[in-house]
Amino acid sequence: MAKQLAFYVDINKCSGCKACQIACKDRSNLPVGVRWRKVFQYEGGEWVDQNGQMIPSSVYTYSVSSACMHCKKPICMDVCPTSAISKRDDGIVLINADMCIGCRYCSWACPYGAPQFNEELNVMTKCDMCQDLVDKGERPACVESCPYRAMDFGPLDEIREKYGTFADPAPLPDPAITEPAVVYKPNKVTKSSRSGDGRLMNLEEL
Fold first, then answer.
1. pLDDT at 195
2. pLDDT band for position 206 (cuts 50, 70, 90)
3. Residue 8, beta-bridge partner list
4. pLDDT per position as a tens digit, 115-130
5. CA torsion, points 99, 104, 109, 115, in degrees to nearest 10?
6. How many CB atoms lie within 10 A of CB 103?
7. What local confidence, expressed as pLDDT, does residue 1 receive?
8. Are 76 and 93 in contact (CB under 8 A)?
9. pLDDT digit string, tens, across residues 131-164
């Protein structure tokens, strides 16, 4: 059996430029409103009044690039009433458009909101890890497009050996829910999914 494939994102290197998101949309020719990869801008902390001047106190901000996590326990696959979602031997979770009825159950169930409804096609769609490129031994477009080399891709065990096991940056959900195939390298201000003290700053983009 092939090894589970996974994404890696270095939050310390990520500038939030969204080159990964744009590369994904461009390569997959996604319509307006459909984003298989999203970049969350997360901020927190406070400003305090000090002798009449507002001074930042524990203020932080960082970006988290996220797409389908090709989870070990893909809830999307469990809830699909037509069994249109499957998982390849290498862990890539796919939607069969010919079997999908566009009911959106997968989107509602996924804690990452990864499946996206394509109104033009009337079916659910999502990141497929650029499976055609992967099958040729190449890397996904999002990984190749990152100007800061903040992303990597490969077998999950090798990604974890190289970068660690952290997969819990806020604002993403608790990884215990679906066991996502992803590793993040936190920076010094990255919060966990349970911290609850920050807020999303780009909701209109998501």
1. 87
2. confident
3. 152, 183
4. 999 999 999 999 999 9
5. 80
6. 16
7. 58
8. yes
9. 999 999 999 999 999 999 999 999 999 999 999 9
Model confidence, pTM: 0.92
Element holding 87 (H helix, E strand) = strand 85-87
Backbone angles phi, psi at 159, to 5 degrees: -65, -45
Long-range contacts of 79-85 (CB under 8 A, 24+ apart): 79/105, 79/106, 79/108, 79/109, 80/105, 80/106, 81/105, 84/124
Q: Is the pLDDT of residue 56 over 80?
A: no
User: CA 97, 102, 108, 114: dihedral to nearest 10 degrees?
Assistant: 30
Torsion over CA: 114, 119, 120, 124 (sign): positive
Q: How far apart are CA 28 and CA 199, in angstroms?
A: 30
Alpha-carbon span 64 to 40, nearest angstrom: 5
Structure confidence at residue 14 (pLDDT): 98
Query: Could you give the CA distance from residue 102 to residue 124 in angstroms, rounded to a whole number?
Result: 5
Q: Sign (positive/negative) of CA torsion 22, 28, 31, 37? A: negative
Residue type (1 letter), 176: A
Both tokens of 102, joined, read 């566009």
Q: Are 1 and 89 in contact (CB under 8 A)?
A: yes
The CA radius of gyration of the chain, in Å to the nearest whole number, is 18
**Is the previous residue joined to 171 through a cis bond, with omega within 30 degrees of 0?**
yes
